[in-house]
């Protein structure tokens, strides 16, 4: 009889102990939820007593056999430790952060983890917020390398997050860490809803140019301009890079389409002139350059390109004339006359370029060429002196 009574008493004590530890888990959860309510309205300091109570109860639950194998226990401990790491401004914050990381790992591996997925994600988000704050502080202090490390660490907690990917890429650009900048920005291309996706394509193209990868730079400029046909910056980047690569012919229709959308854009007319000139359509190129300077009378590069094109045509005309046999003097005279007319037509554009851009070395060089052809030594010397002053 005594033995039975003792066994019953032991069972009662065991049940009470298990209930007590289960009660600690419930108390911890309830206390944390109270803290979280004031945290959500922006006053976490008012809930620190509840956070401390949650910590005490949940640490007890985590050491008991009946509740230490539950995902709920470790999930809420992770939430508690993550919030301590967020609000604590002492060196202890790093210890809390590590405890939160360890608790998240145990929560994911423990019984009932599926039911705690949302809370586990919340704990990870808090850890990510810590890295965001550290990254912003470093970025504002112009410590871009540290900012990159913090933003990149945030991606450990929120893999693939577009905000952290963007900030990490931006910090890497400022740190001149172009490979990592490219890696982070390329991740963003898979998110069609990312608000600044056109800028990402543009920046990727520029980053590849800095990295001396022209093929990739053109690739992303073209992809971006096709995906966002109304984006002027992407269209311009695509045009400029393809022109630099000698792909003017294939761009003619593309630029013409952009001109239809932006008829008052002098730079597009300028690019159109370059593309047409590269395709040997010098008459149409001339019209495009003239249109460019009509739209922008201070457009020095357009004046230079127009003047140089006419000057080269005139020089080539003289070269062709010089190849004629002596018995074709009249034809020689005709071609020489045409060549001279082209050279004279070039003069006002070359001169105008130096007027609107007095420090434009290429404009002065080509104006000097004009005077060399005209055998005006005084003007040549004057321009040479001017060029030395630039």
UniProtKB/TrEMBL annotation:
Keyword terms, alphabetized: Signal, TPR repeat
Residues annotated as signal peptide: 1-20
TPR repeat ranges per the UniProt record: 128-161, 266-299
Record bears the keyword ATP-binding: no
Keyword Signal among record annotations: yes
Pfam families, sorted: TPR_11
Coiled coil: none
Top-rank taxon, per record: Bacteria
Record-given protein name: TPR repeat protein
Organism: Albibacterium bauzanense
